[in-house]
Design a protein that fits this description.
The protein is mostly beta strands. It is built from 3 helices and 27 strands.
């Protein structure tokens, strides 16, 4: 009986996975525009491991964080000729880290762990991390705005929903929240899950939902500037939630992922989606990531382009700097030059660095 039950449970899991894959690859009614179908491979380097993520950039260099070595940063020149491993030096060790994450902005770095919660801050010229005044609320995402202000996302125990707020550094961390920015569509917090990032050029925050075709533009004072829609047609998150015996919530089946990753540069949002459009070629989506461009000033869709996988490894994250797109695929860091048919969508007067 036990064996039969185990086999039955395993069969259900496999069935759910297969169905989720079928849903992802079903053809959808939206139509993409590809002004350029191929981007020529520019350069790539082998990082030896696949645990890196983009932490930020400054003139001439990229900063890579490492999930398995959170107190290290790998500095790579933007030509991908040279990399340097640097160890971050914390002034205080807390010993119970679970999710340390690195971000850089304007020659400053920020190391956060929302499970403790804690925030370290320092300068990228010496990488000495200073533990900031104690934070009293756990959080799940953080995005630095400037040396004095950091945006965060946390789970509200009152509403069982994600909320967005900011900390402002003075004598202590002053907390401000806007509970109305992220709108629930059903019970629980899963349907408001997404990605939080800061646009340095426009000095605005953006929040992109994982499971619906919607993104938000928010000013530094937590006012909603604009709600945008992607070309996908899923307006309501396809999520089923169930309660466990201990009172916690979990997903009853794999969710339908609409937006996978995002980057921003000047007036554009670059959104990665695995969803296949009406006239998209299925084999292209097997060999490439597809990136859709949106103008944050209007919310309008502009165009799409393909970003090629390296070998059989899928692209895990990417960032855009001017006319270059850098991305991680397996153990590799790669860079491609964007066509002028793509960069022409930058706002007038923008001169992307080369």
């Amino acid at each position: 009986t036990l064996t039969a039950s185990m086999l039955g449970a395993f069969g259900i899991i496999i069935g759910l996975f297969i169905r989720s894959e079928e849903i992802v690859h079903e053809r959808n009614p939206f139509i993409r525009r590809f002004p350029v179908h191929e981007l020529p491979e520019d350069k790539k380097i082998d990082l030896k491991v696949n645990s890196f993520y983009f932490a930020g950039y400054e003139k001439g260099v990229l900063y890579l964080g490492n999930y398995t070595a959170p107190f290290t940063v790998t500095v790579v020149d933007t030509a991908l000729h040279k990399s340097t491993l640097i160890r971050i030096q914390p002034d205080t060790l807390l010993h119970n880290y679970k999710a340390l994450h690195l971000r850089t902005l304007n020659h400053q770095f920020y190391l956060t762990d929302g499970t403790i919660p804690c925030l370290y801050q320092g300068k990228t010229d010496d990488w000495k991390a200073v533990l900031q005044p104690k934070l009293h609320n756990t959080f799940t995402l953080a995005a630095p705005i400037d040396s004095n202000q950091i945006a965060f996302r946390q789970l509200s125990a009152v509403t069982e929903s994600n909320i967005i707020g900011t900390w402002t550094k003075k004598d202590s961390m002053i907390r401000k929240v806007n509970r109305g920015l992220l709108v629930k569509q059903q019970a629980g917090f899963f349907d408001t899950d997404g990605m939080l990032l800061y646009n340095q050029q426009f000095q605005q925050l953006h929040y992109l939902y994982y499971y619906r075709n919607e993104f938000l533009t928010i000013d530094k004072h937590l006012n909603l500037v604009r709600t945008g829609r992607t070309i996908d047609t899923v307006t309501t998150a396809a999520i089923k939630v169930k309660k466990l015996e201990n009172g916690e919530s979990t997903m009853a089946q794999p969710p339908l992922l609409i937006n996978k990753a995002v980057a921003t540069y000047h007036n554009l949002l670059f959104i990665q989606s695995d969803r296949i459009g009406k006239f998209d070629r299925a084999e292209k989506l097997q060999q490439n990531a597809v990136i859709d461009l949106y103008d944050i000033k209007t919310g309008n869709y502009q165009a799409s382009f393909y970003l090629p996988n390296i070998g059989t490894e899928k692209i895990t994250s990417f960032t855009v700097i001017g006319n270059k797109v850098y991305y991680l695929s397996g153990n590799h860091l790669a860079v491609l030059k964007l066509s002028k048919k793509i960069t022409r969508y930058y706002a007038e007067g923008t001169t992307p660095p080369h």
